[in-house]
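Exercise: predict the fold of this chain.
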Amino acid sequence: MQLKDLILTFSQLGDFILDEKNTELLKQWSSASRNENAWFTEDNVKLALSNTAKYYLSKESLENFIAANHIETNISPKKVGIVMAGNIPVVGFHDLLCVVLSGNIALAKLSSSDSVLMRLLILKLYEINQELKELIQVADKLNIAEAMIATGSDNTAKHFEYYFAKVPHIIRKNRTSVAILTGEESRTELANLGNDIFQYFGLGCRNVSKLFVPKGYTFDKFYESIEYWSTIRIHHKYNNNYDYNKSVLLVNRIPHLDNGFLLLREDTALVSAISVCHFEYYDNETHLNQLIDGHKNKIQCIVSNEGRYENSFKFGEAQSPNLNDFADGVNTIQFLKQI
């Protein structure tokens, strides 16, 4: 297919998602998806689809992405296997889009946690353009793949590296995101940071699980600013995690802060459990840079006030990446050009 046809097809999918006429149908998609994965609430599915449509599937975004990455029509397509994650809704869509735009054939192994919604999107693409049936194929086995893109945990990554050692591959491991606070943030800015922490229940690699705060920082204003997220405890799976993690901290007499739905614990580790956010004090900017550099291979993205820290996102924008915000900082298009 020509690039102009792919742009038209994918932008039509974006228009379909954003068209209010399709609200009830998308609610049905959400319901079916939630039956497969209880974490996929209607709000989370709506957010994921909306962000995908706005930041990935607009005609302008697609054209800019193709121009920025110098993508041309590929006359010798390769079969590229994609092992998709399922921690948040349609998280594997970016890889699928990159493979198809690069002129290759996507062999998509859907996550058991996100097979319903991804399959519905693929079927909608077929409906828009039948030619995509040749370019996007749902596959259980990837033994015919000539290249691989796989996303998983640190443990599964070891298996991926072994099984896919003989073909070009991108293997992604566990990552998480962090926030840098100065103590000068407004309540609105801290409220936006709450979105980075709680959207998708904190299950995404772009969710903030660690706060870097200046020495002497107090969390009263932070807790007051994120109070509007208190209803997150209504969700039974989140609430179960909160109760369990609170019990662990209490039984082990680990110092922590608690506002009834988010536990704050001083810890040097980046990754925190669901309903828990770690924090660490820094002395000055030099010390802060040292702390960040020590974890750079495990950080997916950084958020800071107005995006002031180098290469960071503004508070509230962690879950709104554009097409050029490649996972793990690895340019998927450049990889696909070289296979």
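Check your answer against the key: The longest strand covers residues 208-214.
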